[in-house]
Structure formats: C-alpha cells, structure tokens
Amino acid sequence: MPDVFAERTQRSQQRLQATEADALVLFPSTNLFYVSGFEEHPAERHLLLFVPSQGDPVFVVPDMYGEQITEESWVPDVRTWSDGDDPLSLVNDVADEFDLRGGRILVDDTMWALFTQDLRRALPDATFGLASEVLEPLRMRKDGTEIEALRRAGEAADRASVEVRELGEEAIGMTETELAAEIESRLADAGGDEPAFGTIVGSGPNGAKPHHGHGDRKVGYGDPVVLDFGAYVGDYPGDQTRTVVFAGDPPDGYEQVHQAVLEAERAGVEAVQPGATAESVDRAAREVIESYGYGEEFIHRTGHGVGLDVHEGPYIVEGNELELEPGMVFSVEPGIYLPGEFGVRIEDLVVVTEDGCERLNDSPRTWQSL
Ligand code: ZN
Ligand code: ZN
Q1: Residue 341: partners with Cβ closer than 8 Å, 6 or more residues away
Q2: How remote is the CA of residue 331 from the centroid of ligand 1, in Å?
Q3: What is the model's pTM?
Q4: Could you read off the pLDDT of 41-63 as tens digits, one per residue?
C-alpha cells in the first residue's frame, strides 16, 4: 500500500497530541482520502474513520464497503455493520477502546449533521472541534507528488485556454453554455478527468457577477467574456481565469480595466515568497487596482489555496497573517466588476518555492483572441 497515506496519518496523530485532541472522526471527504487513500462521496450510511491520537485508526463502515476499503486504504482495522444493525454500537466500542468518552473529538468539517448529531448522542461528555484544526496545516504544505499533479492540471488548463481562445470569431453567437461545453471537452482532450467546478462563462454584463455559471446568453461582438475553468488531473484540480474579447471592439474603458487587473495579478504573484504573509499578497494586488481607482469594484479576496479541494487554505485575504511556506499552492485572482457592463478577472495558480514562487499556469493573459 502506498505509505504516503500512513505517513500522513502519523503526522496527523502527532498534531492531535500537540493540540491535546483525542481523535479525528472523518467521513467521506477529501480529508478522509488524504489520510486513508479511500475516496467516496458522502451518503446516508455511517462510514466513519476514527484516527485516535495514539494507536491504529479504525474504520466503521457498511458491510457493502468492507472489501473495497480493505483493498483501497492502508488501514487494516475495518469493522462492518449490516443494514438493520445499529452502527452506533460499533462507534461505542471504538469510543471505549480509545477512551474517547470525555475526550476532545475533531470531526470532519463537512460531516453531515446526521452523523455529528449521532456522535454527540453517543458521546455526550465529549467536546467537539473541527478536523481542519489538525489537517489544514498539513494539507496546505504539498509534497512533490501533489505539486506534480497540480502542475499537470495547470498544463491541461493552459492547453484548453489556448484552444478556446483560438475560436476567435467562431465563438460569436455561441451561448455561454455552448462555450462552457467547448472548454470542458478541450480540458478532457488535454488530459483532464472531469471539471473541477462549474465552468464559468460570464459574457458582457454577466461577467460582472464573479460566480455567474453559464446560461443562454449569446456571446456578441465586443463582449468581454470571463472564462474560469479547470479539470482534475489525478486527484488535483486546475483553476484558471482569462477575460477575452473573441471578436470586435471592446466597450469603452475595458482596455484600461483589463490592464489594471493584469498588473494587479502580476504584483500579487511577485509578492509571493516564503515568509511573506497571505494578506501581503492580497494587499499587493489590491493596491494596484486601487491606484487605478477601482478599489470598490474588487469585491472579493485575492485568492484561495488549491489542493484536493478547489477551495482550501491558505486564503489570500486581508487579516490572514499566515506566513507562506514552500509547497503552499494557491490562486492569485484579482478582478474588477462593473455591474450592468462587464467584469474582468485573471487567475493563475502558484506554488511557493524556496526563493519565490512558480506559476502553475502560463497561457497568454492578453484579452485578444489568439
Ligand atoms: Zn479560484
Ligand atoms: Zn477560478
């Protein structure tokens, strides 16, 4: 079994001890995958991994998963329950074995309330916190294999980006949804497994809504179009944004807004180095946009960490004094949004290196079609 998962479990146990917590309780999530190697979507049956601060972890899982988890995870202790049994009797056994009844338990951040309520009922004297307390600092620092996967996801996004921008005038008259399908099929051709999030194609005024998905508006001549997309390669996502005008003359003011965002993105990336704080990267990007007079129109943080989750720590935001370290991966994605007119966002992923950072994307950032 690949022991990267066992090693991560050990490191999380060291952190559990250091933070005086007694166990992690995980359910199907990226956290569960990170420590066990087993990947599954959440569902209604109790499927829990107990990672005590000392001793071997224990899976409590539905019968139907027993064999699969034994094969796919490194964890040898897999206890199964059948439909019709009470899974909480297994939970109670584990709680007794690891002396968790009065303990501090860190539950998966995305665990459904269905299961957290059960844990609270089963362990009324325990106190509860979130697993991210222990796992987020570990997950933020990527190892070489993770960075390699993120690099490949970045390359797939770059390839799709160039190909879609080469559509030029052909994109005029396509709906946002058609363009999104085009992007997704090119991501797949470039080695992407599946889209990492709902592809964003925000044309004209829709671009002023940062999380507009895509709809039936047709791309017209001169429309700025915000394209934000990425696909998983292996288990790691790409996430890139370009704002382009496929054909025709852009609206008044657009070129300057695009230039402001481009310079802000560059300033953000240039501020990335070990020891710099997350908020200093946000400030570097924001100051440029403010200097152009659009401070009020930059309505979100500058970036987010990227790993097994497309949005995870470190968050690049004012108030986050976390010092950047080699191996951290995050987006730098300033934007300017003019309601009713258009929006511009430019986004790339970077990995912090020993002496600065490496961009994981490098497709052209100009606004003209290619
Ligand atoms: Zn992003
Ligand atoms: Zn994005």
Answers
A1: 204, 205, 208, 251
A2: 6
A3: 0.95
A4: 999 999 999 999 999 999 999 99
